[in-house]
Write a structure and sequence with these properties.
This protein is an alpha+beta fold. The protein has 26 helices and 16 strands. The chain binds adenosine-5'-triphosphate.
């Protein structure tokens, strides 16, 4: 009762004189009778209580939100969040003088923290979905991995306003293995002991990753992803493409349940050539869900500029512009309106935990053509790249022609039209065409496109001049007599364009893909001249054949990549390398082919780098043998990394070399087609 709360003496004081009427039981009436002076204390108390309560509520809500973000899995240690300004100071405002290298998604700078610690700061290109995925992946694994054989991010900085994403790593003073070995920056690696120890370190690093529960598959094992510390101990870096096997398996099951991926609806609203598409039901999650405290709106992931310029081979179907007739063009900012997207693997997948969203890359392997287009949209994002840069870097054949605004628009229009009109029938046609392609052509596209183009040009020229030569599908590889000549011609051009690394067997990732490297118009140097492809896991030449064939990825895919790396470390050269020397060099151009031939001839030691000092021939032969075991086409036949470490360290007996060391590209698609024609049921065996 309100009257009870007010002292009776006070009530009496407020009663008007001579008023016989008993005080009203109504609280309101009673209240009116109270003087403002008397009312003030309880009112103030009530207000204070309400305000305090509101504050408490707000505080509790904020606290909940903050703690939610920072909650990390119990078995994880959260990466440290650095203030952006601190990293700016540490790197002298990202001074070019402190730049250590350039990756597919950003530059890496040397920095010194206030406590004197030396760090490597990776400034990620924002606006790239793939870049953001890698950023998140790196941080996820940073909290999961702890090994002397792995370099994981120790911290990060993410500035939502500036959209700056920075990753901080412990500095590896001797850089990457690619530069150290192939660019001969570290003479120490020409000592056999050091070289062998690098190989064993990498093997141990992979063994560690595969021994985790669930096993972690690195997915991009190559020399530029191996860093050397001050003692030249090797450590595996770059977990941007790494993935957890369990997550991938779950994803695989999900895919099976869902049946073949299908894009139900793709609506494009083209606004002139700006072509704006709207995203409606794509659900993803940023990695706030990992509790890493970085704000990232879903829009930041899906509102992206797109360029469909990359002819990446995704899941065995290569969609080069030539193959599907996609005109190359500058990027367009688009918002995608999708009901089901391969990247998100449909509604079910989309509604799954955000923890898994980037694992979706794995699903692309068996997806139909449209999904590859979506993969492109998800991966070939170059928001900040000026159009001009894109034009020059993505159109090697026309790069020296002036590109007008209208032609640019036309191309863009064409590309979008093509994309919109890609109905099932066309999709089937493209797949049919793909199936017909000889496996050799896979190599042609991936490695020798430029060479092939030049050969064609040369042949055309010769034909015009009346000199007719054979035009076999196989003659992309220089044949006796004319190979050297045409290659020399190609090399001259490459030199002129200073794009030497296209033949390194590795393609540029992200901004600079294979075509960019072929064009010779790239201004930004990339450390080691290496790269990987954005829409597929791994790097061409290092990637396991089962990936291209749409097979299952497993630890054995890393084993295959390790096999290539081991050969590279032994030979001290790239997996594909053609020099302007005699014909015998061509036989050695493909390191894996060469190793296979040497194995047959019983001369494995010939593959080993002649400039190594203090060579232990027995150990070197063992290394090449182990590499070949890792390079077997059948994943099941390859040893595990544990066995590899055992073999390298002498604890496990090395089995006899198998007959098959085929580095052949995936031929599953073609085989299927052949079998279908013949009416055979056996479609799984490769050729
Ligand atoms: N922790 C580090 N210490 C020293 N140098 C580093 C470190 N991290 C990266 N670098 C240098 O920066 C380069 C670029 O690294 P980044 O991981 O961005 O790209 P990458 O692995 O070379 O290429 P990609 O993105 O195609 O895998 C490395 O090759 C290496 O030379």
């Amino acid at each position: 009762m309100p009257s009870r709360s007010i002292p009776s003496s006070e009530q009496t004081l407020h009663l008007p004189a001579g008023n016989e009427t008993p005080p009203s039981p109504s609280p309101l009436a009673h209240h009116h009778r109270l003087s403002s002076r008397q009312l003030l204390p309880p009112l103030a108390t009530a207000t204070t209580t309400t305000v305090a309560f509101s504050f408490l509520l707000i505080f509790a809500a904020c606290f909940r939100k903050l703690t939610q973000k920072r909650t990390v899995p119990s078995d994880s240690k959260p990466p440290h969040r650095f203030p952006h300004s601190a990293l700016r100071r540490a790197t002298n405002n990202f001074s070019p003088a402190l730049r250590l290298g350039q990756g597919g998604f950003g530059s890496v700078f040397r920095g010194t923290l206030p406590d004197g610690q030396l760090v490597a700061v990776k400034l990620m290109d924002s606006g790239s979905l793939q870049g953001e995925r890698e950023f998140q992946n790196e941080l996820f694994f940073a909290s999961k991995l702890e090994s002397p054989y792995a370099v994981t991010a120790m911290g990060f900085s993410a500035d939502r306003k500036r959209r700056a994403m920075l990753l901080v790593y412990e500095l590896m003073p001797n850089g990457n293995l690619q530069d150290a070995l192939l660019h001969r920056k570290c003479p120490e690696l020409f000592e056999w002991k050091q070289r062998f120890s690098v190989a064993v370190d990498v093997a141990r690093g992979l063994e560690y990753l595969h021994s985790l529960d669930p096993p972690v598959i690195h997915g991009d094992v190559k020399p530029s992803n191996v860093l050397l510390d001050q003692f030249f101990s090797a450590r595996i870096a770059d977990f941007g493409l790494a993935w957890s096997k369990k997550a991938a398996e779950e994803e695989g099951n999900q895919e099976k349940r869902n049946g073949e991926l299908e894009m139900k609806k793709v609506e494009l609203e083209a606004e002139d050539c700006g072509s704006v598409m709207e995203a409606e039901s794509v659900t993803t999650a940023g990695f706030e869900e990992f509790g890493l405290g970085v704000d990232q709106s879903p829009e930041s992931v899906f509102r992206v500029p797109v360029s469909l310029t990359s002819p990446e081979t995704t899941g065995g179907v290569s969609l080069s512009p030539e193959t599907v007739g996609v005109p190359v063009s500058p990027p367009t900012e688009v918002i995608v309106n999708i009901d089901k997207v391969s990247v998100a693997s449909g509604k079910e997948a989309a509604s799954k935990s955000g923890k898994d969203w980037w694992w979706k890359q794995a699903a692309g392997a068996a997806a139909p053509v449209k999904d590859y287009v979506m993969e492109w949209i998800g991966t070939e994002i170059k928001r900040e790249t000026p159009s001009s840069e894109w034009i020059s870097s993505s159109t090697p054949s026309t790069s020296n022609q002036p590109i007008t605004k209208t032609s640019k628009k036309k191309k863009e229009r064409k590309r979008l039209d093509w994309w919109v009109s890609l109905d099932e029938e066309k999709e089937k046609k493209i797949l049919k065409k793909e199936r017909k392609r000889a496996p050799r052509e896979w190599w042609k596209e991936e490695y020798c496109e430029e060479l092939e183009k030049k050969k064609r040009k040369q042949k055309k020229k010769e034909r015009e001049m009346g000199i007719v030569k054979g035009n076999s599908a196989e003659d992309w590889w220089p044949a006796a007599g004319d190979g050297e000549e045409s290659y020399t011609g190609g090399k001259k051009k490459r030199k002129k364009n200073s794009s030497h690394d296209w033949f390194s067997g590795e393609l540029f990732r992200g901004r600079f893909n294979s075509h960019d490297s072929l064009s010779g118009d790239i201004a930004i140097p990339k450390s080691g001249g290496v790269s990987s492809t954005p829409s597929m896991r791994g790097t061409v030449c290092y990637v396991a054949p089962e990936y291209g064939g749409g097979g299952d990825l497993s630890e054995k895919s890393d084993v295959y990549s390790f096999g290539v790396l081991l050969l590279v470390v032994m030979a001290g050269r790239r997996p594909l390398q053609v020099t302007n020397s005699p014909m015998s060099e061509f036989q050695r151009a493909n390191l894996i082919h060469w190793a296979r031939n040497l194995a047959r001839a019983g001369k494995l030691i010939d593959l080993v780098d002649g400039s190594i000092r203090g060579l232990d021939r027995e150990q070197a032969t063992l290394c090449v043998t182990v590499a070949l075991l890792c390079l077997q086409k059948s994943p099941a036949a390859r040893p595990s990394m544990k066995e590899v470490v055992g073999m390298l360290s002498g604890g496990v007996e090395v089995p006899a070399l198998p007959i098959e060391f085929s580095p052949s590209p995936p031929s599953r698609v073609r085989f299927k087609s052949k079998q279908r024609k013949k009416g055979s049921l056996n479609t799984d065996k490769p050729l």
